[in-house]
Design brief:
The protein is α/β, with parallel strands linked by helices and 276 residues long. It contains 11 helices and 10 strands.
């Protein structure tokens, strides 16, 4: 397993950046009606780095990811307890517009989901919805460049997006997210439907984008987390005294520590394949 090693100055910078985090999750629990799906999560997510969430199916990592841009608001009965702040502001305060939250905190989903439109119109869609009508050509080109897709599609921008390969469609979805100038990009299993070559391109792209964006990724692929992330959060499920299962955050630390010297035996067991 290849692990992204961080030099000492990077470790020092990581510690400093956590003093001024993008997100702070304080005792966050997520409910679907009366069922507590995830319990008591505390995290600080640093700017301009890649944070990976790993763990077995059903442990709550995607649920927590969707809390960061209020996507869970769209699920009937879903609600949180605890507090999530974005640059110190309560993300769930009554005066916060969830649509603006989702503009500033973009999301890329597990399966590529381009709109049934042209490549150009997919990327231009967000800026148009936000009222932009000028410089769209420049916006589209810049977003496609940043998503490492421009050279492959620049002569076919009017082509239907669904004619692209799966990996190209996923990079198009990343370009679509970038086009509205977010600060954060959330990625929920972005490579699970892709072949190894397309996966490598997405991983390379993530590391380039992390120079300018905060990226949080959910992945079942531990090798992927080890390769691309700066920090890793390991989630698991626990059964309470009433026999109900809840997702729990077990350990959250630098990726090098999580994979080389985990503090919790449950993390070590999952990473070595002994359980989970």
């Amino acid at each position: 397993m290849t692990i992204k090693h961080m030099p000492k100055d990077a470790l020092d910078r990581d510690a400093a950046e956590l003093l001024d985090p993008v997100f702070v999750l304080d005792d966050v629990s997520v409910f679907y009606d009366d069922y507590e799906a995830v319990r008591g999560v505390d995290m600080r997510i640093a700017p301009r780095c890649i944070t990976a969430m790993i763990g077995p199916s059903g442990c709550g990592k995607s649920t927590i990811l969707r809390c960061l841009n209020r996507m869970n608001d769209l699920i009937p009965g879903a609600h949180i307890k605890g507090r999530i702040t974005f640059h110190g502001e309560d993300l769930y305060a009554p005066n916060v517009d969830p649509i603006e939250v989702r503009r500033r905190i973009g999301m890329v989903f597990q399966a590529p989901n381009p709109f049934p439109k042209s490549i150009y119109d997919n990327v231009a869609y967000g800026p148009r919805v936000n009222g932009r009508r000028s410089n769209l050509d420049e916006t589209v080109e810049q977003a496609l460049h940043r998503a490492a897709l421009w050279d492959e599609v620049k002569d076919n921008l009017k082509q239907k997006a669904h004619t692209l390969s799966g990996g190209q469609q996923q990079r198009l979805c990343i370009a679509r997210a970038i086009a509205v100038q977010p600060e954060v990009i959330l990625m929920d299993e972005p490579c699970s439907a892709l072949d190894p070559i397309a996966t490598t391109k997405i991983e390379d792209l993530m590391q380039v984008l992390a120079k300018d964006y905060t990226i949080v990724i959910v992945t079942h692929n531990m090798q992927q987390a080890a390769r691309v992330s700066d920090r890793t959060a390991y989630f698991t499920t626990e059964v309470d005294e009433h026999g109900e299962r809840h997702g729990r955050l077990v350990e959250y630390d630098l990726t090098t520590r999580i994979f080389c010297n985990p503090a919790d035996k449950r993390t070590e067991g999952y990473i070595t394949g002994r359980f989970g």
